[in-house]
Structures are given as structure tokens and as C-alpha cells.
Amino acid sequence: EKGTYPHYMLKEIDEQPFVMRRIIQKYQDENGQLTIDPQIIQEVLNADRIYIIACGTSYHAGLVGKQLIEKWAKIPVEVHVASEFSYNMPLLSEKPLFIYISQSGETADSRAVLVQTNNLGYKAITITNVPGSTLSREADYTLLLHAGPEIAVASTKAYTAQIAVLAILAVATAKAKGIELDFDLVKELAIVANVMEMLCDAKEEMEKIAREYLAVTRNCFFIGRAVDYYVCLEGALKLKEISYIQAEGFAGGELKHGTIALIEDGTPVIALATQEHVNLSIRGNVKEVVARGANPCIISMRGLETEEDRFVIPAVHPMLTPLVSVVPLQLIAYYAALHRGCDVDKPRNLAKSVTVE
Ligand code: F6R
To answer: I need a labelling partner for 15 at 20 to 30 A (CA). Which of 116, 118, 198, 350 fits?
Structure first.
């Protein structure tokens, strides 16, 4: 039930800190260590390459998961949109392992690929919020999100839960391979949960940003580099699906190769700056769009901020920033849709689970 909340989406955004803490708890062993079923870890160790298959928001979580698995567990990962993969299968490695990411566990496009890879005899893990769902039943293994039912069509808490579970999988694999990591994921996810809480308390500020930048605009761009780019794709999807504003997520450096032609006087450009190694470059990209008249809204991370920034997120582990940087974007999308009189929980033309190919 949504209780005192006006919409499920807002309630589910607010639940994210609790979901983080629940995930830590559910994946902890009796010694407080994060663990994954040893059989699953064995499958990951046997693989020479991981293929993540998903759609929409779950695909965006997969992009972040690729970074985590490659950087921490040192296993190459490819991320594919399910509907493309099934009709245009890439050349596979010798020992592929498939990870299906699906909140509902019922998405037909993802299932179509699972049927194919099962027929080819490859092992599959499903990361889902719904125990007993089709994708869970038909895969060899399941990792649960423990996010609680997600009712709003726009996925929020499932996205952050998916990234958290992928982070746990990456760390557990690194540990099994004897790779030393210089941080404790339990602690880092606890920090993430606290920061999420602070961001959920920043609703007024997010409402102001939505009002200022998005009340009447026709379009909006989200730019970022490295992992911020993936969060920009998700921020743009949230905004377009519930507010019907044409929104695009772009890699900061790619903008000038064509898309910058769309920047006009007043075009809102939301820029994420949470990554130290690309901080100067993304700020350079902001200058490029400002020179063409864009109305910039920079959301940065504590330690990397400058005076021009509109909002600064408290610092978390640099690889875990998507878990927190997405929250302001979710809230901005929510308030933009609200101000524009849209049906936040049930946007037009969309269904919660897409069970047709
Ligand atoms: C966007 C959204 C969709 C889903 C996509 C996959 O907010 O909800 O893009 O992420 O349809 O759904 P699942 O994760 O259930 O496979």
C-alpha cells in the first residue's frame, strides 16, 4: 500500500535506503561477510566471459554491473539489450556465462534469449525481484533483489537493488579469486544507504530544479562520462517515460559529434560529475553546451564540486556513485511529471511488465 504517499513512485524512491540495508542483511553470513551461493561463484569462476542480458532500466543497471565485475573481479563482461541479442547474437566466447537482470522476471524479450542460451547448454543466473518468476524458474540460479514489490511503472528501487547485488557478486568473486580489494563493501553500502537517505530528504530542492528547468521545456539532455554516462541513460529514461519530455542521455565527449546541434537557448542540460578522472572533461563539455545557450544543472560529488554546481551529493565509494547519483534524477523526473500533470505511476503506452516480444 502506498499509505500517506501520493504515488507509489515516490514511496519506492524513499524505500531505497531500507532496501540497501535489507540487501546487506540478506547477503551476510553469520560472520557478517557478504556471501553468494558457492555454486554461483563456481559458475562465475568457470566462465571466460559474462554476458548480461536485460531491457530498459535493468539494462542500465547491467552497464554499471559490467564496470563492477570487470574492475573488481577482473572478468570481461558484455551487456546486451535482450531484444537485439536474440535476433543478432554476437560471436560468443568459449565459456560464456549468462546473467539475466529483470525486476519482474517476466520480460518476454529477456526470456527469448534465456530459451536460446538454455538450448545451447549455457549456464544462466537470473537477478530478479520476484521469486518463482519465469526467468527465475528457467535459469540455473537466482539472486534475489529483496526490494519488495515495485508497483510504479517507472523502476526505481529495483535499479539500485540490482546494482547492489551485482556489486556483492563482484566482490564475492574477487574474494574467491584471491584478489585483494582495499575497501569493505558492507561499510560502503551502509554509507550509500545513509547518503540515499539524505538525498531523499532533498525533495524540495529537486522539486525546485524540476520546476526551474523542466516545467515547459520540450527536451532535456543528460551528460556524463564513465559510469556517470550510464546513470545519465537511466535519468533520461525516467524523465521521458513519466513526463513525456524528450530526454537523451549522452556521453559527454560524444555530444560534439552531432547532438550538440540540438542545443538551443535555454535547453536544459543536466550534467553528472561524480568521477574524479573525468571531472575536468565533463566540466569542459558543460562549457561547450553553455556556449550554445544551454541552461546547465551540474550535480556533482563532494570533493569534486565547484561554485557553479547546482547540487552536491555527499561522497560515497567512487565505483558506487550510481547508487546515489540516480536518486536526484529519479526525484527530478518525478516532480517534472507531477508539475506537467502526468499520471506518474501509470504513464501512457507502458505496462509494468512487458510480456510480449
Ligand atoms: C523503466 C522500466 C522498464 C523496465 C524494463 C525491464 O522504468 O521499468 O524499462 O526496466 O521493461 O523490465 P524488467 O526489469 O522487469 O525485466
So the answer is: 350
